[in-house]
Design a protein that fits this description.
single chain, about 525 residues, alpha+beta, 6-stranded antiparallel beta sheet, 21 strands, elongated
């Protein structure tokens, strides 16, 4: 995969339309953000000469190698940006991390000007539906990073890289797209033989090769190897042998860092959630690939909004946007949806100039095998996505789940906690498999309701008939909340089942009075 616009996209990402709404801050209708729109003519300059220009700049006459002063004289509307190798390296790292979603075998071409990433997708073809579908998926994913990619495929990495670097050519009938895909070795050889010698510019002077009558690689291969190696060395022949599959090639595979913490400098001042989300998309895609390499899913991460400092004479602190998940996930689309819900609630007190994303907690996440007859919404991941969306919209403290505690008293046997909060080390565990646990009501009253007694039977809008034998609970002596109760499942004449208990005599009542040596009855819950 070749990035022909690396130096430009590293400075001015061309976010796809899907990443933001039409009112995104990159649109001309939002000039207050100060970002650059793709309609503006832009040229990247290095050592006072143009190395890359976008379409609008080339339409004004800007060409490769033109001096900075010549561009300024040609048109004052051309925005000239200094090339930033650090930003280019960061973008290449983000691309490599993103492509880990498709295969763990990813390597970056060591040549400084190559701007190429190579992938071994032999084991991934069937998983992603063949090489055509895989190429489309890779191109779409890289496009979401804010850059364009030219993809070549072949039986050798070096040959596929040369095919991917072939530019579009203008012919008599318009733009000609070169063939860049080869599945068989025979077609691979045929496509490589047709390549011009310009693809060897890092290994030999194309003008010298044309001077000896070589315009295509097939003609270079026919030259005497001994004489060619004495003239220009053995590196050209070695690279040709690797491209044609004559000798094996060794690679230094890209290794994902042990922890994920990436930062992104935004191409301007952003003051809206849509603009921040467009920039955060690159970080989320890199996170997705990193998690795929770790065979894990994130459960908690934090997006840091780095504001423009010293605005109005004040040092502005960064804004933290925490993102918690009920179940581990590495789906970039799901994470982007949750982040959008969070950003919609953020009040931007100062423009955002940079973003940083770090992972605080993750868990093992192995993809589930597909079933023969899948049911929509039946997978556990669907419930997790629903809970994540509710937490993002309603807040973490408003989506709770019960957690059991080691206490026999029903009112203290559980506590409510956020669904994404991990259990404590000393949390109560599920009982071992054996006798079934006692039946409990679905609805437990907030406070037990005192019942009237008639002929030694409790009354709740009518006499209650006991259906079970007493279940004795006696606990709480250690914290001053002693409970001595006998619980029953009782039924009313209309079929309502109640959970009642009698408090044994000899203990003070709830208001501190003596019980007078009599049993007291209470309603504690109702069955569905």
């Amino acid at each position: 995969m070749h990035l022909p616009r690396l130096s430009l996209d590293a400075l001015q990402p061309s976010w796809p339309e899907a990443a933001g709404a039409p009112s995104a801050p990159f649109a001309p209708s939002a000039p207050d953000t100060g970002t650059l729109h793709q309609a503006l003519p832009v040229a990247v300059v290095e050592h006072e000469r143009v190395v890359l220009a976008n379409g609008p700049a080339m339409a004004l006459g800007v060409r490769y190698g033109m001096r900075r002063g010549g561009v300024q004289a040609l048109s004052a509307d051309v925005v000239q940006l200094d090339r930033d190798p650090v930003a280019e390296a960061a973008l290449m790292t983000s691309v490599a991390l993103t492509l880990l979603h498709f295969t763990p075998a990813v390597t970056i071409d060591p040549e400084p000007e190559a701007a190429t990433v190579m992938l071994d997708v032999t084991a991934s073809l069937r998983l992603f539906g063949g090489h055509r579908a895989l190429c489309r998926a890779i191109r779409a994913r890289v496009r979401q990073l804010g850059t364009f990619a030219q993809i070549g495929s072949g039986t050798t990495a070096q040959g596929a890289a040369w095919l991917a670097r072939q530019p579009l050519r203008r012919g008599p009938r318009g733009i000609v797209r070169p063939a860049r895909r080869a599945v068989s070795a025979t077609r691979m050889t045929r496509l490589l033989d047709r390549l011009p010698v310009e693809c060897l510019h890092t290994l030999a002077d194309p003008a010298w090769l044309e001077g000896v009558g070589c315009r295509m690689l097939a003609q270079v291969r026919r030259l005497p190897r001994a004489g060619l190696s004495r003239r220009i060395g053995t590196e050209l022949l070695d690279r040709l042998d690797q491209a044609y599959g004559k000798v094996p090639t060794g690679f230094a595979w890209f290794e994902a860092p042990p922890t994920f913490a990436q930062r992104l400098e935004l191409p301007g001042r952003i003051e809206s959630a849509e603009g921040v989300l467009a920039g955060a998309q690159r970080l989320l895609l890199a996170l997705s690939g990193w998690l795929a390499a770790q065979q894990a899913g994130v459960t908690r991460c934090v997006l840091v909004l780095e504001h423009e400092r010293y605005r109005l004479g004040e040092d502005t602190d960064s804004t933290l946007v925490p993102l918690g998940l009920a179940q581990p996930s590495r789906d970039a689309a799901h994470l982007s949806k949750l982040l959008r819900e969070k950003l919609d609630k953020v009040r931007f007190h100062a423009p955002v100039g940079g973003l940083a994303l770090r992972v605080e907690a993750m868990e093992t996440c192995v993809p589930q095998s597909d079933s023969l007859f899948p049911e929509p919404g039946a997978e556990p991941a669907e419930l997790g996505r629903l809970l994540d969306t509710l937490m993002a919209r309603l807040g973490r403290d408003n989506v709770l789940q019960p957690r059991p505690l080691a206490d026999h008293r029903p009112e203290r046997a559980n506590q409510w906690c956020p669904v994404d909060e991990p259990p404590a080390r000393g949390a109560a565990r599920a009982p071992a498999i054996g006798a079934p646990p006692p039946e409990r009501p679905l609805w437990l009253l907030e406070a037990p309701l005192s019942l009237r007694v008639h002929k030694h039977r409790p009354v709740y809008d009518g006499p209650l008939v006991m259906l079970t034998r007493p279940e004795r609970i006696e606990a709480g002596w250690w914290d001053g909340g002693l409970a001595t109760r006998d619980y029953f499942i009782a039924e009313r004449a209309d079929g309502l089942r109640c959970w009642v208990y009698r408090e044994r005599p000899g203990h003070p009542t709830r208001d501190g009075q003596e019980d007078g040596g009599e049993y007291r009855w209470f309603l504690h819950g109702l069955f569905a």
